[in-house]
Amino acid sequence: RKEVEQDPGPFNVPEGATVAFNCTYSNSASQSFFWYRQDCRKEPKLLMSVYSSGNEDGRFTAQLNRASQYISLLIRDSKLSDSATYLCVVNEVTGGGNKLTFGTGTQLKVEL
Amino acid sequence: GAVVSQHPSRVICKSGTSVKIECRSLDFQATTMFWYRQFPKQSLMLMATSNEGSKATYEQGVEKDKFLINHASLTLSTLTVTSAHPEDSSFYICSADGAGSYEQYFGPGTRLTVT
Q1: What is the pLDDT along chain B (115 residues), one digit of tens a residue?
Q2: Does the CB of B111 have a partner CB in chain A at under 8 Å?
Q3: Three-class DSSP category at A82
């Protein structure tokens, strides 16, 4: 089983749509969680951290369910510029320090 | 703030040669730097973690004698791909974290093509 699993997509949605991505992780000792965005042939950029209480940043809402080891990202009112790959990322604190484990990403294409 | 640079952004080299990639934290001191590799349509895979002044910790399956990491200062880490082969062609990305922070700041990546 992969450490962080995501549906690879692609999700093709019209502009203005609401789209949700899900992610599961296998290590129950994981301590912090993030969504990153990666554009084609670029480095990943932090979109938002994910907290147990759920958190919102504009059109983006992230949720964490520790019991189910499940993370979600909701994007409302999709824009063309939201087209990218969304990476679910889990952090563990190991003897060597922080270690991020990346999912393979979910590709989003927002269309006119 | 929290800018990480990488150099070069793109490199093409011949099989058997060595390539050095630099990763710098420009406006902060990085406790730890990380090196990742990403093949097309795949996830970022952590190769190694390095702390300034100590030996890097390599992930399972990553050859430490092939991927040499030097972390000489709190703002600079280098990755040298020795005796490169075409299968080493990939997108190499470094990241750095500041003291006490879980967040990692990523460099723009280096695209290596070995011919």
Answers
A1: 689 999 999 999 999 999 999 999 998 888 789 999 999 888 899 999 998 888 899 999 999 999 999 988 889 999 999 999 999 999 999 999 875 666 788 999 999 999 9
A2: yes
A3: helix
